[in-house]
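INFO  loader      accepted 1 record
INFO  loader      residues=489
INFO  predictor   begin
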Amino acid sequence: MTRLFETIEVPRPIREAFAYTSDFANIEQWDPGVASSARLTAGPPAVGSRFRLEVVFGLRTTKMEYRITAFDPPHRVVLEGEGGSVHAVDDIRFTPTTLGTRIDYTADLTLSGLGGLAEPLLRPLLERTGRLALDGLRRALSEEPAAPSPSLVTSALDYLLLPGMLRFTTLGFRTSRRCFGPLAVSLQGRTIVLTGATSGLGRAAAERLARLGARVVLVGRDRERTTRARDEIAAATGNANLGVEVADLSLRAEVRTLAARLLRRERRIHVLINNAAVLENERRLTAEGLETSVATNLLAPFLLTRCLVPRLLASAPSRIVNVVSGGMYLSGLGPEVFGEERGAWDGATAYARHKRALMVLTETWSGELSPRGVAVNAMHPGWAETPGVARSLPLFLRVTRPFLRTPEEGADTIVWLAAAPEAARVSGLLFLDREPHPPAVLPGTAGSDEERQGLLAELTARTADAGRARKAAPRRDARSRSVSRAASS
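INFO  predictor   done
INFO  writer      dumping tokens
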């Protein structure tokens, strides 16, 4: 048997240090000897919780399964692992100090078979591996990564289009994740409002944010589905501090009512995630006479954000995360954004236009709000297999399924933008896989100043307080309103 023992000190409260370290689903973030890690059991860590790790030994990896055998939060956790010819017992103890927490980490390793015969020779390598792992844990709980900045290589690939689109696949995500830093944060005391939370990207993001300790308010259209999502997330994470709000976001009246309820019920709102969207394969009108997808994808986030900005400002530092789409790279602005052009309807093209417009709003709001403590960023998830894709783009799904991301992979950057300290230090950017990307690569797609001002004026007119129709609000008056009024009235 080889016993490894290391002690580190980190500037974190003991409960935060314990919560992050005892959840071995996080170990791939800090141990360079672990290629991947995943939780096998539902609920928060407890006695009996199981984790699967891919551990690197030389040029090969070995699958190991760990189980928590002792759990005394926030002071001690013991995990026992088995896989291949390796048996491990990790005993981790936590002690509060004046500056944070001391972590004493003991690992007993027993090798069998040929590994057992070679164990005396392997001991120096095992000891070095243990030191690297604990140094990684120390850095994860101590260091704050630098603010992200655009890469010239990334931008060049995006401008070449095809190489950039290859990044949208699951292979792109798996390549990018090798450069991800730890997300060793606690969101205790933070309130996050997330639209489109019952399935796909929103559901995946909601669960992970809840696991980080946030109060997540799930906004959905169907009460039964939204309540079920709330209950499932609570069971999976052990976080029961979750809210349910039901609203049809295609209706301006319901968006206003939703905002009023949120302002009444939530004393603080630290993050707003505008995720809900639909791709309609046929032109449909809402009960208010607007095309359904533009009402959901564009008017709803514009109006909801406008209504909640005062609370976000009062809760600063706070954040707005807008979920857009890689399809917007092929689309610009123009009157067609509002779906009133004549001729055949193309739902995918309309969706791309809406997301282009939402990217423009991201940049506009950032200029107005970031100096006041609200970081505003957009992300696109790449190509992910979600119920929305299956319903609206069945042919695309059949052709690309082997290359599609999971909802969890697609949602990773949503969570990172909502939670990571370094993400709060930038604003007005577009992200894919935690890395800034150019928001437009084709000439004319970014939108001229006139088109951007017209978009803001039209959105302001269509979401006027009395719900007046477009004709009732002259565009000249609307255009003269400042970005500040549109973003915070």
